[in-house]
């Protein structure tokens, strides 16, 4: 089945509503999508309701997913989760911790921007950029800085203020990837390491995370070259892990106006293997 298993909405740092994602997925012929907003799962119910209202529930399967932002030895590691129970108490606690960390980081950066740079932005300027209950983060802070006249572009805001060496930047105190993997797995889900090409410690970390329940590697990703896809696919096979993939869609391509949802080639067998893995976890 034609799938895209890594999609963001405006409940985190995407620009489309869940409804717009569903409409676009149907338009481009996708059969399975996973909504994987950062540190929250609110878009899933909205998307499911919209699909039901369209009367096209048999045309598209929506998987409840999530992308948990974690820190490990100064590396930012993203852990994807699929098919988990969102009502699991530890999983709900995980999301609560993550959301509180986002708020604390944002408030501290706002304070430092005012004190050290004279840039005045309000917490509300950031919150209003996401849907109610959504995950605020660095892209929203950067946009607020630019809107307030602190920089001429979001890119400049990142270059000057949104990085570890900036005097106004405060790292987010998130959970570890080990915690995220274990909690997703214990909630009946399939934990997957996202876009591992970003990590030069990927192989050793993947092997360590397997001890906590890691079940997959996102080999197919828009940042991954064919050689990279082959490398991580082979690693997954050697380690007995499933392979996943998706566009990691956030917004249409600004340069040429293209919608890239579903454009990343993900073989049809990826979804089938994911379903089999979920059945194995449920039987364990």
Structure description:
Helices cover 43% and strands 15% of the residues. Strand 5, helix 8 and strand 6 form a beta-alpha-beta unit. The chain starts with a strand and ends with a helix. The chain has a 7-stranded mixed β-sheet. The radius of gyration is 19 Å and the shape is globular. It folds into 2 domains: 191 residues, Metal-dependent hydrolases (TIM Barrel, Alpha-Beta Barrel), CATH 3.20.20; 67 residues, DNA polymerase, domain 1, CATH 1.10.150.
What helical percentage do the residues reach? 40-55%
Number of strands: 7
CATH superfamily of the largest domain: Metal-dependent hydrolases
Amino- and carboxy-terminal Cα gap: 26 Å
Average pLDDT over all residues: 94
- Number of individual domains: 2
Largest sheet: 7 strands, mixed
Molecular shape: globular
CATH class of the largest domain: Alpha Beta
Order of helices and strands: EHEHEEHHHHHEHEHEH
Cα radius of gyration in angstroms: 19 Å
**Can you tell me the residue ranges where pLDDT is under 50 for at least 5 consecutive residues?**
none
How many DSSP helices? Answer: 10
Which percent band covers the strand fraction? 15-25%
- Strand order within the widest sheet? 1-2-3-4-5-6-7
The CATH topology of the largest domain turns out to be TIM Barrel
Question: What structural category characterises the helix and strand content?
Answer: alpha/beta
- CATH architecture assignment name of the largest domain: Alpha-Beta Barrel
